């Protein structure tokens, strides 16, 4: 897999000669208040938007204040695996039911962050903190064992990433209770470092270098930003470097192509956290979107997905199974990151794929609200 930190230093163009420390620029958090979206600038754009998709999105934004926050689950909570057997095939409905606290806290905080972006209402920012504070006081997601409860670990990685992104949006609100904000951010830092500890213990497992690894990378990056933890920030960017390094010459992720009928599905699922990591890095002043590792960039992975959606047969060399394009139809959530990508691709490369508003709590909320072109 190579040397991830060396890889990311090369990708980010931050070193003149790897191995000569005096030429390196440290990868550090530049601005703890720089969310994945420029909140003030976007709110100004939304006030005068003429884009029908954005106008429709504004009508769908819900308030956090009317929602009931879920209590934090115990770290001993057992969550069944997503699939009844292996890594594909029929899913286990018990997993969805057991993981409800995670889904609900992600949705509630993402809606509060969206409403704060759209309206600037301090109550929405307060609502996000109020929902998370009991989790912080309980030190949720800091005492489990990934070896014993693998699915809990997965839900922890998604949840830490999701709520950290929401906190990144609301943390600049000046009226927030600063003691509560500090408590929540400190807890998320502990939860992210727990993810890293468990990952290091399970380094040899298959999930270490597939999409789960990338989602943990997003958790490290997002928490690194809001807590100004340069170790976590660099860890997340390093994982991005590993991911780009893993792309084959066609732009496919080999680990995701091994998922049988879900190969295309998981190519998209792997791209979700990677685009957001690149966006967080962009907001900190590091452009890792377009710079290559062994000639590949994230654009290669995105282009492969686009081709595969148009002609699923191109994955037949990797997976002979007929592809199930779950959540990959027009306007479905696994393509939510396209709203971000269109801001950096230099053209509306996925315009025909954009449909209904993209609300995806795992990426911090409504991507259409945050990134779609405001004026048409």
Please provide a written account of the structure:
The protein has 15 helices and two strands. The chain has 376 residues and is mainly alpha-helical. The protein has a domain at 61-202: Glycosyltransferase, CATH 1.50.10. Helix 5 packs antiparallel against helix 6 (122-137) and helix 6 (122-137) crosses helix 8 (178-201). It starts with a helix and ends in a 5-residue tail after the last helix.
Topology:
Blueprint: H1 4-11, H2 39-47, H3 52-60, H4 93-98, H5 100-119, H6 122-137, H7 150-170, H8 178-201, H9 211-226, H10 230-246, H11 254-257, H12 263-283, H13 298-310, H14 338-344, E1 359-360, E2 365-366, H15 367-371
Antiparallel strand pairs: 1-2
Helix pairs in contact: 1-10, 5-6, 5-7, 6-7, 6-8, 7-8, 7-9, 8-9, 9-10, 9-12, 10-12, 12-13
List its traits.
single chain, 376 residues, mainly alpha, Glycosyltransferase, two-stranded antiparallel sheet, 15 helices
Share of residues in helices: 40-55%
The string of secondary-structure elements, in order, is: HHHHHHHHHHHHHHEEH
Could you tell me how far the N terminus lies from the C terminus, measured between alpha carbons in angstroms? 44 Å
Tell me the structural class. mainly alpha
The appropriate CATH architecture of the domain at 61-202 is Alpha/alpha barrel
Determine the number of helices (DSSP H or I, runs of at least 4 residues): 15
Q: Assess the beta-strand content as a share of residues.
A: under 5%
Spatial ordering of strands, largest sheet:
1-2
Which class of the domain at 61-202 in CATH terms? Mainly Alpha
Give the overall shape, derived from the CA principal axes: globular
CATH topology of the domain at 61-202: Glycosyltransferase
User: Which value, in Å, is the CA radius of gyration?
Assistant: 20 Å
What is the fourth-level CATH superfamily of the domain at 61-202?
Chondroitin AC/alginate lyase
Largest beta-sheet characterization: 2 strands, antiparallel
Mean pLDDT over the full residue set:
89
Number of separate strands: 2
- Low-pLDDT windows of residues: 1-6, 12-23
């Amino acid at each position: 897999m190579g040397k991830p930190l060396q890889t990311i230093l090369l990708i980010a163009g931050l070193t003149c000669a790897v191995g000569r420390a005096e030429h390196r620029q440290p990868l550090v958090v530049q601005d703890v208040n720089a969310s994945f979206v420029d909140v003030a600038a976007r709110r100004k754009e939304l006030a005068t938007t003429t884009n029908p998709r954005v106008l429709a999105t504004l009508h769908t934004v819900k308030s956090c204040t009317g929602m009931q926050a879920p209590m934090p689950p115990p770290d001993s909570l057992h969550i069944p695996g997503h699939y009844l057997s292996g890594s594909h095939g029929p899913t286990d409905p018990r997993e969805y039911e057991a993981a409800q606290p995670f889904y609900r806290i992600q949705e509630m905080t993402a809606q509060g962050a969206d409403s704060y972006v759209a309206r600037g209402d301090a109550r929405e920012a307060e609502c996000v903190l109020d929902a998370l504070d009991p989790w912080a006081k309980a030190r949720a997601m800091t005492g489990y064992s990934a070896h014993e409860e693998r699915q809990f670990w997965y839900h922890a990685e998604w949840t830490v990433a999701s709520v950290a992104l929401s906190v990144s949006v609301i943390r600049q609100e000046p009226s927030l209770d600063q003691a509560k904000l500090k408590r929540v951010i400190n807890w998320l830092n502990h939860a992210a470092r727990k993810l890293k500890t468990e990952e290091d213990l399970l380094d040899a497992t298959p999930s270490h270098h597939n999409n789960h690894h990338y989602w943990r990378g997003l958790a490290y990056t997002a928490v690194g930003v809001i807590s100004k933890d340069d170790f976590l920030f660099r860890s997340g960017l390093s994982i991005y470097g590993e991911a780009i390094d893993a792309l084959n010459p066609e732009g496919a992720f080999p680990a995701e192509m091994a998922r049988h009928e879900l190969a295309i599905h998981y190519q998209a699922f792997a791209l979700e956290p990677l685009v957001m990591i690149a966006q967080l890095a962009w907001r900190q002043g590091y452009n890792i979107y377009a710079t290559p590792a062994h000639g590949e960039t994230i654009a290669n992975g995105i282009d492969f997905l686009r081709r595969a959606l148009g002609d699923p047969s191109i994955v037949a060399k990797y997976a002979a199974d007929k592809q199930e394009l779950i959540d990959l139809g027009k306007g479905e959530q696994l393509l939510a990151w396209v709203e971000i990508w269109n801001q950096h691709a230099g053209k509306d490369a996925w315009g025909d794929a954009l449909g209904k508003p993209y609300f995806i709590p795992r990426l911090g909320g409504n991507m259409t609200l945050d990134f779609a072109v405001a004026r048409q």
